[in-house]
Fold:
Amino acid sequence: MRFYLIDLPSIQAHLWPFTLSRSAADIPVGIFSLRQKWEAILPNRIQGHIPAPESLWSSFDLDLPAQNFPLLAIASHCFPSKELVERIQKMVAGQSLWQGDALLAVFAQSPTQLLEASHSSSDSNAIQVHESVELLDRIWKIPEWIGREISRDLAFKPKADMPVSPDWGNLIIGPPERLHLANGARILGSIINTTQGDVYLDADSEVMEGCMIRGPFYLGPQSTLKMGTRIYGPVAAGKHVKLGGEISQSQIFDCSNKGHEGYLGNSVIGSWCNLGADTNNSNLKNNYAEVKLWNQALNRFENTGLQFCGLFMGDHSKTGINTMFNTGTVLGFSCNIFGSGFPRNVIPSFRWGGATGLISYKLGAAKETAKAMMARRKIEFDVLQETMFQRIFDAEQP
Structure:
């Protein structure tokens, strides 16, 4: 049987701004993205990915099955589990799998059956699951699940048992076997506490002198903790990331920087972002009330049920020195935020300014900034990136 991941149109806007530039399947939670989690639990079985028709990046990642029907399409925002895999494998052609009114999978015999609108939880061929299936249907769930997912993802990571040299001058508190170093990773003159979870330093990553790390924590390949960084796990950072200051319960996507002092907590930072020196976010309201967060699909602020909720920043966004963000703030794609005071709790894509006002960020200037930042990682800002920027700019204008 051919397995595919499929983006459901009903979910994409709930995960704004991160789904402007990627599939829900490519949002990392813990060490791996959802796609990588499925590929780990179904090795060599995931044949491709089917984007939602309105996806602004989909022309760059089309992997449509063409004549490969029948196929089994799994909603890309589902977390895999042994129980869910077993249930999916028991499906027969024409069936759909549901959790309440949430579509989980379709055994499609034709392209028409891949359309979400072609199915209903009340259909005769609709099957309800009895076990609970975890769904990434809101962005505020990402920080809540980092620690759990690091623990799960470690089961699928290659063994990382590079020795920690006594000459490196570290202090390890807790089980030393919970500190994992992949090839080329180094940690110098730092304090590592593994009593609450594992610390995994991936290939060629570096922890500079004077860092304090409380697990669970994952540092991706060729990433760096700068001197004196304080990590309150769970925290997960992708590849080519630079981190400094104080960070707690946050997910940082590939190729982003928070290289200086400042607090980041209960937050999600997309790819190619840069937080200027002493950028800070609040993650707790002064009255300790539940945090509401902007939901693009609902076009309103939504109760999260959380007391701690921080900053959610779309790809290619930047902040200037001493920028401040209020509790539960969402930034769109390619924003440049600076100045004193707190800007709005939701900032649309391609905006320039801060608390005193926002104007449209010129597309040409935004692309030049992205091109310069990507060049520092020796990655070309190519025609695919050009097209994606244009499509997001056009779609996000008021």
About this structure: The chain has two domains: 3-128, 141-396. The radius of gyration is 21 Å. The CA atoms of residues 197 and 216 lie 4 Å apart. The chain is about 15% helix and 30% strand.
